[in-house]
Amino acid sequence: MIWTRSRATVDSHQPKPGLQDSGGRMSGLFLAICAIVGTLTINANANAAVSGKVTDSNGLPVEGAHITFTSEPDASQHYSDVTDTDGMYHVTLGIVTAVEAESSIPVTFQLFQNYPNPFNPSTIIPYQLDQTGHVSLVVHNMLGQPIRALVDRVQSAGLHTAQWNGYDDQGNGVAAGLYVIRMETARYAQSKKAILLDGMGGRGAAFRGPHSAKPAAPSQDRLDLYSVTITGDDIEPFSRVGISVQASATLDFQVVRLAIDESAPGESLAGPSGQTVVLQTDHWNNGNKKNEFQYYLDNGSVVKHGFFNEFDEKGKLIDQDKYYAGLCVEDCEWRRSFADGWGTSAKQTVDGGYIVTGKMLTLGVLLLKIDAAGNEQRKKYFDDWGERGNEVQQTADGGFVVTGREQNYNGFLLKVDNEGSEQWRSTFEDAEGHSVQQMTDGGFIVAGREIMNRQSSTLLLKIDSQGVQQWRKVFGDGIGLAVRKGIDGGFLVTGAEGSYATGIEVLLLKTDEQGIE
């Protein structure tokens, strides 16, 4: 289960008399990874035995919690254990190195799921390589734009880790939401989804960038700083940074447990931001469980939270979806219907949700914002002037831009903020917009058609960030249905040309950055 916000305390003190280290036991993922890369050795000069107890807010021991210490100067150094029945853990902090052996090289390429996930402020990304070669590990936003290069170099075969702290390549904190971590080599590529909680937006630069000179070694007084994460099936994810471990010590942690009694549907539990989380269970006619899910009410709206399980009539679990405050984080499928009309374009947004444009049956442009779970968040109609929207894109400022056709058969480009409120509208006469893309200068390129004397010609428009048209180009008979900017700065348009009388053919049009063919 995934819950919203960690509330925990940490108590640091010297070892109790008679307390001895019983030896670290690594968590399942870390143990499996260690088995792949071979024998591990510990640098005895940097060892620090750490023991402690993990309890809940009632002081009861938490069994089966995964606790991980990650070195802040070197994120590749991390040490894990699983709490026993008394809530106790034992780890030995040191410098871990892999002993090279022929049998230790992994036979597969794999990007593991980052942990913790969801996360704040940072997350560890383990991966393994089957052979030596160039590796690219990049974080992308939901627009597909690369925002942070974590790895871009040749690495040897074996296990590696990277760390992302929620900042982009310019040192700016990014907003909360869903991100894609993609790893590529010459032969393989693989992606994983990561969820940043609360966001790092507005925080200052935290690093020098991916292409800066190698940073100086950390000062000695920072070599003992660790980040600690604790996760478990029935507790809120817990994380703390900047914990100093100068010598063998006992560190006790307190986490929030969210126990669920499935035999008591409707039991109220502590939820996000003081909300009440409810477990609801529905049954088949034969009495078997049909579905069960957790939710809380936000201004009267049901927000899924934790999980949504479905069972067949025999009581067998057939689908399990996991949610975080309404955001689907694992194995979620759904189908929704909205309003009277149809959609023509849908895009995923940076918050993991979706934006849809289209046409209402009664004339009007539709703009619909949907969350990641398929729930309607906002609905806007532009029925006083608009007929339909043909494509929608999210813009760099978090708002949206829509192109389509007005009621008087003029084309339009509509810019709205993230709440759907109109900021400006650019109209182009005797035309229709079918595709739009934002440029790096903040402006937009629009493809569509110009309609003169019942003849359609391919249209290409450049519009600045304030909605002012900069140039307009028309090409032959046809229609532009999609446009993208090329790596040389020019534009590529595809669509159709010709007519039903003479025959219709696929159009592929290449222009320079000024729209000249």
TrEMBL record:
Record-linked NCBIfam families: Por_Secre_tail
Region (Disordered): 1-21
Domain FlgD/Vpr Ig-like residues, every copy: 131-186
Pfam families: FlgD_ig
Name of this chain's protein: FlgD/Vpr Ig-like domain-containing protein
InterPro entries: FlgD/Vpr_Ig-like, Ig-like_fold, Invasin/intimin_cell_adhesion, Secre_tail
